Every structure is written in C-alpha cells, then in structure tokens.
Amino acid sequence: MTPQQEQAEAFGSLRIDAARNRERILAAAREVFADGGIAAPLEQVAQRAGVGIATLYRRFPTRGDLVSAAFQDKLQALVDAAELALANGDPWEGFSTYLLTVCEMQATDRGFAALFSAEALDDPRIHDYCTRALVAFERLVDAAKTSGALRADFATNDLLLLLNANAGVGAATRDVDPEAWRRMVGYMLDGFRVAHAS
Amino acid sequence: MTPQQEQAEAFGSLRIDAARNRERILAAAREVFADGGIAAPLEQVAQRAGVGIATLYRRFPTRGDLVSAAFQDKLQALVDAAELALANGDPWEGFSTYLLTVCEMQATDRGFAALFSAEALDDPRIHDYCTRALVAFERLVDAAKTSGALRADFATNDLLLLLNANAGVGAATRDVDPEAWRRMVGYMLDGFRVAHAS
After folding, report:
1. Given this model, what pLDDT does residue A115 score?
2. Which of A23, A180, B150, B163 has the fewest Cβ atoms surrounding its Cβ within 10 A?
3. pLDDT tens digits, residue range A11-67?
C-alpha cells in the first residue's frame, strides 16, 4: 500500500466513524426528546450517544439543527400523509385516514407531540414542514366539509385537541394496551361526522 | 377564671390547633398528590403543611388513611353524581351529564385521576367508593343502551378511555384554554350516541 493509499483508507475510516457518530447522536436525540421533550439537556443526548458534548456541537451547532435532523423523516412523513390524503377521491376517507395516521405517529413516538410546541416551531425548518402539513390539512377539512361528511363547526385546532387526547390515552395505556388510542380516535371520528353532530 | 376553666380553655385551644393541623395536612396532601401522584413522598406533604413528619404519621398512620381522607369529599361526590344521574328520567341525559361531571372533577383536580390507579384501589375505603360509583355507572350504561341512545358496543372501560383523553387535553391546555376539555368530551359524547356509530 502506498502512503497515498494508506491515507485514503484512513480518511475513509474517519468518514465512516463520522457517519456512525451522526446516526448515534440522532438516535439518542430521538430517545431523549421522547422522554424529556425537545428542551431536554443536550448533555444527556451526548452521553446516551457515547460521544463528547463538543462532538455533538460540532455536528449540530444549534438545538434546531439537531431537532430538525432527528425528526426529518417524521416531518416529511407528516407532509406526505397530508398530500396523500388530499389525493383520496373520498374526502371523508382522506380526512379520517390522515387523522389516524397522525395519531399513530404520535402513539408510536412520544417525542412527536413536542414538534408542535412553540419552541420547536421557532426553528424555521420545523416551522416550514408543519406549515406545509397544516396547509394541506386545511384543504382536507374544507373538502370534507364541502362533501357534507364533516360537521361545519369542526375547527382546524381540533386536530391539536385530538392529539392532546391521544397523548393522554397513550401515556396511560402504552404499556398495557398499546392499541387503546385507536378506540378513542374512532369515537372522536364518529363525533366529527356531520350526521352525528348534536 | 378557675383552674378548671383555664384547663378547659387550654384544652379547647389544643383541639382547635389539632383540627387546623389536620386541615393543613389534607390541603397539602391534595396539592402534592395532584403534582406527583398519590405515591409522592409524605415528607413533601409534611413540609408543605408546615408540620413535622411525626405529626403527620400520628394523624394518618398509613398512606391510605391520608389519601382517603384527602379525597373523601371527591369520592363521595363521584358516588353522588352517579346516583343522581341514575335518577334522571332521560337515560342519555343522565349518562352524558355524569361523564361531563366526572371529567370536570378531573379537569379541576390533577390528583383525581390518581384515585383510579392500582395503588389507590389497594386501600379498601377508596376501593369501596370506586366500586359504588362503578356499579352505578354500569346501571347508567345499561339504561342508556336500553333506551336506544347509547351504542351497544360502548364498554364500561370507555369511561377510563375518556378520562385518559381528558387528562391529556387538560395537561396541554389547562393554563391556556381551561375549557378545551369540554369540546373534546362533546365530540366523544357524539361518538357514543347510537345514531352516530360507524
């Protein structure tokens, strides 16, 4: 092996290490944020990832960098689900499937709800994803109302009401009855239907 | 004042002090249990009440003594509300009013939900109150189903589902929108009605 080859191999190992470190930090961040919200101490993230705090800050200079990277897949999935729902020929089916999808995302990830907190939305990347999802959701709501399936007094904010209720059910039942949230969401969806309004 | 009168007066003051201490301990217990659940350290209760831990244990030898005394009014109100609802001529109105009452009790007292935890139900007094409330609730459910207003697949356990959802909404909105839980419960009640089942 020439000195150049040796150098290239060493550099390659460094890059693999760096990529591994990055993944370890992101996985640790998702766990720590899930437990303690996205304001949790970054020292905890570094410790769980097995890296120094300096390494963490070198890769993710701000908390927003870390949060948006940790949740990028989830945020993209949120936007995708809304756009897929809009493409559904049955507006009620699109609307209700989207709510179930979002509640499922939350039920399987305790950190998910923290993405809609004021401090998360301070980050422009998270804000951008959430805005795109919200715009699509508003179009879903309009279509479902126009079709006559969704009650006229449904408010966009009722999505947050549903997510908060879902968080409460999840917190109490996650370990003993992990599908309980589906029953609650089913009742809420029945409550949202226009034929059911009282 | 005769020595006997002086003694009687001093004894009266002692009894007033004791009654005050008892009320202070119970008020502190309600606050501490609300924040930390009913397994919270009793030292915290004593500290908040401004009494020594020995005084607390002298008045309430077991945790169950303290918990059942602290929540006795709430537990009695729970039973009373169920029995009042049973006396309502309209079974659906009785059923829905009872659910709203229980959710309101929970919304205004974060310690309330802890009463339905396994550790609380270990205490025979709390168990007795909750059993009486549950028996009345089962009769409410039967009456509302028989009247044709409540969907046949409503399960008694859906009361806990509702309370868990209510806890989630309360936790997220208590400080910013303290009546938000009513909107969620309204949707759930619409979902419970037989005409609304899907």
Report:
1. 77
2. A23
3. 777 677 778 889 999 999 998 988 777 889 999 999 999 999 999 999 999 988 999
**Structure pTM?**
0.82
Residues in A closer than 8 angstroms to B193, CB to CB, are 196, 198
Query: What number is the average pLDDT over the span A120-147?
Result: 91
Q: Which of B168, B173, B195 sits opposite A169 (nearest CB)?
A: B168
Chain-chain contact of B164 with A166 (C-beta, under 8 angstroms):
no
Taking the C-alpha atoms of A139, A140, A146 and A152 in order, what is their torsion angle to the nearest 10 degrees? -100
Q: pLDDT at position A8, please?
A: 76
Nearest to A184 among B165, B195, B198 (CB): B165
